[in-house]
Amino acid sequence: MWLLDALYKKRNSDKIAVIHRNEALSYRELWSRSEIIAGFLQQEGLYPDAEKTPIVIYGNKENDIIPVMHAALKLGVPYVPVDTTYPVERLEKIMAQVSAKVLFNFSELDIDYNACEFKITDLKNIYNKYSSLKSSLDNWVEDNDLCYILFTSGSTGEPKGVPIRKKNIVNFTRWVEQYAVSGLEEDFVAMNQVSYSFDVSVFALYLYLPLGHAIYSIDKLMLNDMKELFQWLPVSQIAVWVSTPSFIEICAYDDKFNERLLPKLRKVILAGEILTKLLVKTIEERFPKTSVVNGYGPTECTVLLTACEITSEMLNAKDSLPIGYILDDASYTLENAYEDEGKTVGELSVISNSVGLGYYNNVEKSAEKFWYDESSGKHGYRTGDLVYEKNGLIYYVGRIDSQIKLNGYRMELDDISENINKLAYVTNNVILPIKEEGKVQYLTAIVILKELVEKSKLKMILRIKKDLAALVPSYMVPKKFCFVESFPLNVNGKIDRKKLLEMLK
Fold first, then answer.
1. Gap between the Cα atoms of 348 and 297, Å rounded
2. What percent of the chain has pLDDT over 90?
3. Phi, psi (degrees; rounded to nearest 5) at 124
4. What is the enclosing helix (H) or strand (E) of 256?
5. Which of 38, 118, 209, 498 is buried most, with the most CB atoms less than 10 Å from its CB?
6. H or E element that contains 92
7. How confident is the model over 317-366, as pLDDT tens digits?
8. Are strands 55-59 and 267-270 parallel, antiparallel or unpaired?
9. CA-based max dimension of the chain
10. CA distance from start to end of the chain
């Protein structure tokens, strides 16, 4: 199943495809608008047949972003989504990296960059003036063509581009469909909350749309105002929720977040962060007819490499929740493995058709992480994530770069965090290494409490330290603790550790 092929078959359908607040686009309108945009760009000479320069899109969840993406695919060129949460400076750095000639700007900002810029009013004029324009099927992206380039934060502070091909997306959607639609009715609405700058948005764009389902867009204004979000959620009638664990956890702080608010919800798909047992139990209590799917995967490997539905056995097991079974076509190894309490732990390195080619125009960085496997004809990627395998399931241990050395002891920050989450009165936590002159001096735990079981915060800290010391060596107990009601989230819906560090200053 490929996006453009599926949309072609639905090009005359008046069934709703995309909904944002009170505005909706049918499959017919989605197709027609992408045809006009592609035809216009080609007619204006911006994209002759051999031109492959990426199209940059600066926006959030505006409906017309999707026809622009489809137009790019019809022209055989990749698009680069940049969320308006990012400052203009970052946008301009990305445009410079891809040598952008065309920018679709859905913000109210004027971008001072040497590119052909189209705003929402320009799009409306193009739809009206060039309504008869069509694209050519001959230009559509092929298996090895790039579809999109997502920019992640690089260690140098410069954005790092991850290009993904059509064959990568097809491999992912073919495998993940078993987890994404099983147990659902034939016709349903899926949530489209994840920023287009974050690869989990591929669920809505490349899986649910081609299957003929409507996607309901949650914009950044809703995310910043829970009262407004809770006004729109019942309107959405979503059956599938796709987000990071942190986002649904924030929603769950409100007792109104239950099946009365979302009576049709049947599946929750979570990825991008560690999923806790407490959160799964909360979801199951609030939405008893709903199943929870946990997934894991770096952007470099097209959304997810592993997935599984969480079972009661997993919730009751001693191990943390698994991140899932490896995708069907993949082979993997655990590099630099070591034994830890009877488990073989190592860096997950994967070979699959879901693995991208490398970083955009960055041969040196690509060589560090990617390689070509001649025996399979596929590409490989070293994830930097420590995992172990048990009964076919993969379990996450932590990042290689979250391994620190403190007072001569080497430890995993995620290991400490996982053990704090085992305490019955803790909802979630983040461990921050506090550095001076590049050296870790001590650890601070930022904790969300489920309940205050002591009379003061000081006694609460002493209680946590005592209970944690029964689970981990004393040198792994953080020196300082800070309590918050919720974690700040970044544009991708993940916990924003930079803001947490700023809160401590």
1. 11
2. 84
3. -60, -40
4. none
5. 38
6. helix 88-97
7. 999 999 999 999 999 999 999 998 899 999 999 999 999 999 999 999 99
8. unpaired
9. 72
10. 51
Burial of 500 per CB tally in 10 Å (0-12, 13-18, 19+)? middle
- How many residues comprise the chain? 505
Measured CA distances, 401 to 347, 410, 412, 432, 493 (Å): 11, 12, 9, 13, 21
pTM of the model: 0.89
Alpha helices in 139-215 (DSSP H): 166-180, 202
What are the DSSP E strand ranges found in 356-392? 370-373, 378-390
The DSSP code for 495 is: B
Dist CA 55 CA 138 (whole Å): 19
Which own/partner pairs from 108-111 qualify as long-range (CB within 8 Å, at least 24 positions apart)? 109/84, 111/58
Rg, the chain, Cα only: 23
Q: What distance in Å separates the CA atoms of residue 168 and residue 299, rounded to the nearest whole number? A: 11
Question: Would you say 172 and 164 are in contact if contact means Cβ atoms under 8 Å apart?
Answer: no
The per-residue DSSP string of 284-305 comes to HHH-TT-EEEEEE--GGGSS-S
- The pLDDT tens digits for 131-143 are 999 999 999 999 9
State the Cα–Cα distance between residues 221 and 225, nearest whole angstrom. 6
Find out whether 282 and 251 touch, Cβ atoms under 8 Å: no
Task: Return the structure tokens found at 139.
Answer: 């230009």
